[in-house]
Amino acid sequence: MTAATVRRRQLGSQLRAIREQRGLKLEEVEQRTGITSAKLSRIELAKSAAKPADVDTLARTYECDDQLRESLVRVARDGNKRGWWLNYGEALAPWLSDQISLEEAATTFRTYQVQLIPGLFQTAGYARAVHTRLAIGATPEDLEARVRVRRERQAILTQPKPLEMQAVIHEAAIRSLVGGAQTMRDQLEKLLELAGLPNITIQVMPSETGVHQGMNGPFAILGFPDSDLDVVLLEGLLTSEWVEDAERVTVFDRAFRGIVAEAWSLDQSIDFITAQKDRLK
């Protein structure tokens, strides 16, 4: 039995919630669909992967609307794809593979970062400096693999149907000298380039702001066509935590809206980033 990915847990949790909302027992679903109670239980508990055809059958039995049904089937279908990132093998932690898989399927990505530039915005030099200092126990080969992965991930920002990304970055991350002055100047130039794309919004949280919703730490909200499948990523030093419960995700959604309101406007943010870039000669 393979380890459950975040997407599989999402799907199983959602199918179970819908079934319970309809007031159906496992045995009743088996009678209506031919999918055994044992198999459905394994799917709901993320102990086995769900076939897209089975998910389609379940969604129709639960009388889901077309949008929700198609979303659920897409999750099951995409979960069986081999992503490009799997070619990097042990250089990537399992949680990072899950994160990249979710990024590839997401339509929106909202993040608040305190000390670092968001990974999807990082230059190779900046990413290398970060991994060199923070990737505990990694070999030089692993470090370079992680830098390449970080750069390849950024393709989702410029593909034909790009990821919609909204980032609020604390002033401290903009003022820091990760990798030295030239590396940081290159990074700030990259931020300004990205800010010119129609699918990317960048704001800066000023240090002078009082207590605000972001003081509990950095996080990212990955959004999907069906908002009930949205998840929150809390990154740590050695691992990451996923928040999948819809009510808890809503808490982070409210927090992010508050952070956006407290941050500098788009124009003020661009002016600040430009000034910091020009300061690094």
TrEMBL record:
HTH cro/C1-type domain location: 15-68
Signal sequence interval, chain numbering: none
CDD domains reported for this sequence: HTH_XRE
SMART domains in the record: HTH_XRE
Protein name: Helix-turn-helix domain-containing protein
